[in-house]
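step=encode ok
step=design start
structure_in=
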C-alpha cells in the first residue's frame, strides 16, 4: 500500500461527509461469510477448464490465449478462495493456467502471437505481444506474491514486458494493446487499462521488484503515461488508476484519490452496486441498450479496488457494495451477473458468460478482502 493510499479512509470521510443511517449500511455480523464460496470456486474452475479446451482459445505449443474476461480474473481471484475453503493445494485448472503462461514466457521467441498479422492483419502481432506481455507478468507476479519470492520465469516475463514498452511518441510509457472494437477491454482507450495492469504487476511482485534500480526509468515512463490527462478519462480508467496507485508509489495524490472516490460515489446505484455501462461511453454493436442495472463486474471491481487502496469494509461506498454482492450471487451456479457491452447475448451461453467470469472473480476478490 502506498503512502497516498493510507489516507483513503480520511478521503472517504471528506468526500462523503457525515454518514446518514441509510448510507451507513454496514454488513451485518456474519453476512460476509453468507455467500457460497465453494460454488464460486466451482464456477471459476469450471469456466477456466472450459476455456482451456475451447478450440477458439487454443494456441500453438499446446497453450491457450489468456483472456481479460476469464483467464486473468481467474488467476487473480482463485488463490483468494484457497484459505477460505481450507484447500490443501492449488486447483488443477489454476495449475494448468500457470503452467501454460510460464511455458509461453519461456518460449517467448518461439510461440506465435495470439493473433498474427498474417492471419488477422496489421498491427495484430504487436498488439498481441504487448497485451500478452502485460498479462503474463501480472499472472506470474501475483502467483509469486503468495510465496514471497520472485521466480526466474516471472523475471523473464518482466523482461519481455519492458522490451515492448513505447519510449517515444504519443503512447510513451504504454504498450500496444489488442483492439477488436469490443468493450471494455479491446476497444478505444483500452490501452490505458493495460498500462494500469502493468503497474499492478510491478507493484505486487515480491522481492522489492518495484524499487529495482534497473526498472526505474521505465517505471517513470509508465507513471507519466498513467497520470497524463487523468482528469479527462472515463470512470473505468479512474478505477484502474486508483488500483495501480495502491500498488506503486508516487502515482496518485490525495486530491486525485478524492476526485476518483467522489466520481465513483456519484455513480453508485441506490441498491449499493455499480453498472459497468456507467463507467464509460459505450454503444452496443447490435443497437440494443446496455444494461444499466448493477452488475457483479463493476461492483466487484470497484469494491475490491477501494479496499485495496485502504478503505474499510464498513465504510461507504464499500459496505453497500459488499451487501449487493452477497445478495446477488446465483445460488445455483455460484456466479454473479454481468452483461456484454457489445451485444445482447444469451447470459447462460459460453460466450454470454464471459462477463460473468470477470464478475465472479472480482466479487470473490472484494468479498474476501484480497490484496
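sequence_out=
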Amino acid at each position: 500500500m502506498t503512502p497516498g493510499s493510507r489516507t483513503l479512509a480520511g478521503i472517504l470521510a471528506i468526500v462523503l461527509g457525515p454518514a446518514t443511517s441509510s448510507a451507513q449500511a454496514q454488513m451485518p455480523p456474519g453476512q460476509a461469510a453468507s455467500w457460497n464460496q465453494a460454488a464460486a470456486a466451482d464456477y471459476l474452475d469450471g469456466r477456466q477448464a472450459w476455456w482451456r479446451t475451447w478450440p477458439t482459445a487454443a494456441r500453438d505449443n499446446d497453450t491457450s490465449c489468456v483472456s481479460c474476461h476469464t483467464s486473468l480474473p481467474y488467476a487473480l481471484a482463485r488463490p483468494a478462495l484457497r484459505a477460505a475453503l481450507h484447500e490443501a493445494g492449488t486447483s488443477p485448472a489454476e495449475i494448468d493456467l500457470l503452467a501454460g503462461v510460464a511455458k509461453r514466457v519461456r518460449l517467448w521467441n518461439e510461440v506465435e502471437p495470439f493473433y498474427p498479422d498474417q492471419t488477422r492483419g496489421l498491427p495484430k502481432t504487436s498488439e498481441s505481444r504487448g497485451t500478452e506481455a502485460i498479462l503474463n507478468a501480472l499472472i506470474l507476479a501475483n502467483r509469486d506474491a503468495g510465496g514471497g519470492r520472485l521466480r526466474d520465469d516471472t523475471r523473464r516475463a518482466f523482461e519481455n514486458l519492458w522490451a515492448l514498452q513505447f519510449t517515444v511518441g504519443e503512447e510513451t510509457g504504454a504498450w500496444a494493446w489488442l483492439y477488436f472494437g469490443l468493450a471494455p477491454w479491446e476497444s478505444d482507450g483500452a490501452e490505458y487499462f493495460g498500462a494500469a495492469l502493468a503497474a499492478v504487476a510491478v507493484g505486487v511482485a515480491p522481492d522489492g521488484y518495484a524499487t529495482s534500480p534497473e526498472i526505474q526509468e521505465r517505471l517513470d515512463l509508465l507513471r507519466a503515461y498513467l497520470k497524463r490527462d487523468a482528469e479527462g478519462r472515463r470512470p473505468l480508467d479512474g478505477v484502474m488508476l486508483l488500483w495501480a496507485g495502491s500498488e506503486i508509489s508516487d502515482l496518485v495524490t490525495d486530491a486525485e484519490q478524492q476526485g476518483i472516490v467522489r466520481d465513483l460515489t456519484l455513480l453508485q446505484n441506490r441498491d449499493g452496486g455499480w453498472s459497468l455501462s456507467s463507467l464509460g461511453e459505450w454503444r452496443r454493436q447490435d443497437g440494443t441498450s446496455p444494461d444499466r442495472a448493477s452488475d457483479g463486474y463493476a461492483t466487484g471491481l470497484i469494491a475490491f479496488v477501494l479496499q485495496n487502496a485502504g478503505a474499510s469494509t464498513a465504510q461507504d461506498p464499500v459496505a453497500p457494495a459488499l451487501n449487493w454482492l452477497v445478495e446477488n450471487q446465483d445460488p445455483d451456479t455460484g456466479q454473479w451477473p454481468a452483461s456484454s457491452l457489445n451485444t445482447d447475448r444469451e447470459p447462460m451461453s459460453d460466450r454470454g458468460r464471459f462477463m460473468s467470469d470477470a464478475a465472479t472473480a472480482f466479487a470473490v476478490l472484494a468479498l474476501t478482502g484480497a490484496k
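step=design ok
step=annotate ok -> The beta strands are 58-59, 63-64.
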